[in-house]
Amino acid sequence: MEIYKSLVDRLENQHLTIVELIEKLPSKRNIHDNIAHLTKYQLVFIERLKKILMGNSPYFERYEAENDPDFEMFRKMNENDLLKSLNQNRELLNDLVVNLLEDDLIKTGVHKKFGELNIVQWLEFFVLHEAHHIFTIFQLANDINLEAKNDK
Questions:
Q1: Of the residues 44, 54, 63, 107, which has the fewest C-beta atoms closer than 10 A?
Q2: Model confidence, pTM
Q3: Strand-strand pairing, 108-111 and 115-118
Q4: Whole-angstrom distance, CA of residue 31 vs CA of residue 141
Q5: Contacts of 41 (CB under 8 A, 6+ apart)
Q6: Ordered mean pLDDT values, 10 residues apiece, the chain (152 residues)
């Protein structure tokens, strides 16, 4: 088992799309919470991976930002600080997984909804979850651009 190239590519670069989507927006309302969520969840995910790598197939509830007392702190961060944190912690995540051995990749953790997943499946879950939020940001950005054009 190995981490396939498309997964490595998305782990390294997918989050960079956010800046491309929002950098020229006249406002970023509603988008901020999605960026805060991705930034906080990435830290949660890194901790989950570390627990999985310790063995014993740990169990994880579904992450819900509204039940996370630390999430409000991320919501209060400005956009630049969120994106900086997202980028820095992505480097930590990539460093954590880039040299994992096959024995590590087959270790599992149990997700409440998706059941037992090995490390590769957890990584795929992570990038798909992130892609979902990036798509939401894309939709919100287009709504903002349409509103700005209609207001002219």
A1: 54
A2: 0.94
A3: antiparallel
A4: 8
A5: 63, 65, 129
A6: 94 97 85 97 98 96 95 95 98 95 96 97 98 97 84 72
DSSP, res 55: S
CA 48: distance to chain centroid? 13
Q: Which of 87, 108, 6 has the alpha carbon at shortest distance from 39?
A: 87
Of 53, 34, 43, 54, nearest to 132 (Cα)? 34
Nearest-CA neighbor of 106 among 94, 119, 116, 93? 119
Whole-angstrom distance, CA of residue 42 vs CA of residue 48 = 10
Residue type (1 letter), 47: E
Residues forming a β-bridge with 116: 110
SS3 27: coil
